[in-house]
């Protein structure tokens, strides 16, 4: 690697200032005086870094890049202003350095090997290394480079794309320095952290910062629960550890938010309490067995909480459907239940539940606290193993005849019974039961809740409905009770969901 030249930009800028623009000598001295560490900050991270660096490794992978094709793998000319001297310079340089010589046509080249760099850390002196799945994914060869530049061929024990974790094993003639996982739940926003890794392939590098946030969902998967830090994390840091000041691994550095590709102080780490269990399973059995409850869930909003009489505001996960023969259905969990606690863990919001269930031992019988019929109830469920995911088929929306339709005043809906004709027109499943929505008025309360023609109303306020008249009667009863919203169980192309619908909204248009 060629040396990197650092231009003295700050110095050049200062010297270019007019003399009058420079601050007086005392003020200048005050500006460049050494900064005092804030209270609680270590005076130096050197002792910690010295202890931890030997357990952090660089990971080098190679992968066959495929057979080059004529004219397709020639280096591209770097972008330059059209007609500029640089454009001509680059073209001349690439022409002179063709393997066949200048002016010769490109011939097929032998297969090349792509290389990539990442980071990892040793969790067992026997040579067990943890890194990111995306660091080693698709690699033909994986090598681990220790701090003393010893390179060892690594064996992949297992990888989990869902959480982006992989475990490697290397053989060495003596025990290797290692680090331990800490308790990521004990890490708080504002705590000091240290990141060690291999940014841009430079080798072991140490950066420090604080925890900026917890529980970040960056839309990378169902189990997102990232620690956000402002410790500098760059390309090549992937798979490296995030340490607390006790030298314990509380996170695996995985992603950054960056418009430029470099650190802007927004990095994300997988919490150690998630990584520990995944790494252990990959090490022992080469794959991950996740717990499965067998429910379709959705977020509890303030309106849904009000409709269900749920105390202490919106919380928990609302069950839209308990899958037939699934663990939840067998344990007595029903559609309309709000899961508040699972195996002693508080379910603060919907997205907490999949992570809690997935981390539960398969076959374990656990207590589940649900909100049902205005009070808390406890059921027991035996957790099963997560099966292969199934994708729901998308069903087209089509128009329906107006006969037998009913308009729901103030809601912007027309509904109709599920007749054979409606079932065919809306491609409804044979097992679908309820009342089908045939029209939705733009700008209406129903449109605001993204109800669409072809959706089926299965329940109103947790009571089954089979005809438009029953839907209307349930809604009128809620109005007489002074309820502001009605809770509908809606079945659509993506499955079932609960929808709170405003009852006393002004009419802003009805289906015509």
Task: Give a verbal description of the structure.
The model is unreliable at 1-34, 66-84, 389-403 and 505-512 (pLDDT under 50). The chain folds into three domains: 47-64 and 112-288, Thrombin, subunit H, CATH 2.40.10.120; 291-385, PDZ domain (Pdz3 Domain), CATH 2.30.42.10; 406-502, Pdz3 Domain. The chain has twelve helices and 27 strands. It is elongated and about 80 Å long. The strands form five sheets. Strands 21, 22, 23, 24, 25, 26 and 27 form a seven-stranded antiparallel beta sheet that branches. Strands 1-2-3-6-5-4 form a six-stranded antiparallel barrel. Strands 7-8-9-12-11-10 form a six-stranded antiparallel β-barrel. The protein has 512 residues and is α+β, with helices and mostly antiparallel strands. It has helices spanning 9-16, 25-31, 46-52, 85-96, 133-136, 272-285, 302-308, 327-331, 352-358, 420-425, 445-448, 468-480; strands at residues 56-66, 112-124, 128-131, 141-145, 151-160, 165-170, 192-197, 205-216, 226-229, 241-243, 249-256, 267-271, 291-292, 295-299, 317-322, 338-342, 345-346, 365-372, 375-382, 384-385, 406-408, 413-417, 435-440, 456-460, 463-464, 485-492, 495-502.
């Amino acid at each position: 690697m060629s040396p990197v030249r650092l231009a003295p930009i700050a110095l050049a800028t200062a010297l270019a200032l007019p003399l009058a623009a420079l601050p007086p000598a005392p003020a200048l001295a005050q500006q460049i005086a050494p900064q005092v560490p804030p209270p609680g900050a270590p005076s130096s991270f050197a002792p910690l870094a010295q202890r931890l660096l030997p357990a952090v490794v660089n990971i080098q992978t190679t992968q066959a890049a495929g057979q080059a094709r004529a004219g397709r793998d020639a280096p591209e000319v770097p972008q330059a202003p059209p007609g500029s001297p640089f454009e001509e310079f680059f073209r001349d340089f690439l022409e002179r350095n063709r393997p066949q010589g200048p002016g010769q046509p490109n011939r097929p080249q032998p297969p090349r090997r792509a290389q990539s760099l990442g980071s990892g850390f040793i969790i067992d002196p026997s040579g067990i290394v943890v890194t990111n799945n995306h660091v080693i994914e698709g690699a033909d060869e994986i090598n681990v480079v220790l701090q003393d530049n010893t390179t060892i061929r690594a064996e992949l024990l297992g990888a989990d794309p869902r959480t982006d974790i992989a475990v490697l094993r290397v053989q060495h003639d003596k025990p290797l320095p290692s680090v331990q996982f800490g308790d990521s739940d004990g890490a708080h926003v504002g705590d000091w952290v240290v990141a060690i890794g291999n940014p841009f392939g430079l080798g072991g590098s140490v950066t420090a910062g604080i925890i900026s946030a917890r529980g970040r969902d960056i839309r990378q998967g169902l189990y997102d629960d990232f620690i956000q830090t402002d410790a500098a994390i760059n390309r090549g840091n992937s798979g490296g550890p995030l340490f607390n000041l006790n030298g314990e691994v509380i996170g695996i550095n995985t992603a950054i938010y960056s418009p430029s590709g470099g650190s802007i102080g927004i990095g994300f780490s997988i919490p150690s309490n998630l990584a520990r269990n995944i790494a252990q399973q990959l090490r022992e059995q080469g794959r991950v067995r996740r717990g499965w409850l067998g429910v379709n869930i959705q977020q509890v909003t303030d309106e849904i909480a009000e409709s269900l009489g749920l105390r202490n505001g919106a919380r928990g996960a609302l069950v839209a459907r308990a899958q037939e023969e699934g663990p939840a259905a067998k344990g007595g969990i029903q559609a309309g239940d709000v899961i508040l606690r699972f195996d002693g863990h508080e379910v603060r919001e919907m997205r907490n539940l999949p992570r809690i269930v997935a981390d539960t031992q398969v076959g374990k019988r656990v207590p589940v606290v649900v909100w049902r019929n205005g009070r808390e109830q406890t059921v027991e469920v035996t957790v099963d193993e997560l099966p292969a995911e199934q994708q729901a088929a998308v069903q087209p929306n089509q128009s329906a005849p107006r006969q037998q339709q009913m308009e729901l005043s103030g809601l912007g809906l027309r509904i109709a019974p599920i007749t054979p004709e409606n079932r065919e027109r809306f491609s409804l499943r044979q097992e679908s039961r309820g009342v089908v929505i045939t029209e939705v008025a733009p700008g209406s309360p129903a449109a605001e809740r993204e109800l669409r023609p072809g959706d089926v109303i299965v329940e109103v306020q947790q009571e089954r409905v089979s005809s438009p008249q029953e839907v209307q009667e349930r809604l009128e009863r809620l109005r007489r009770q002074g309820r502001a919203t009605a809770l509908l169980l809606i079945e659509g192309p993506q499955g079932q969901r609960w929808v709170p619908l405003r009852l006393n909204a002004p009419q802003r248009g009805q289906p015509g």
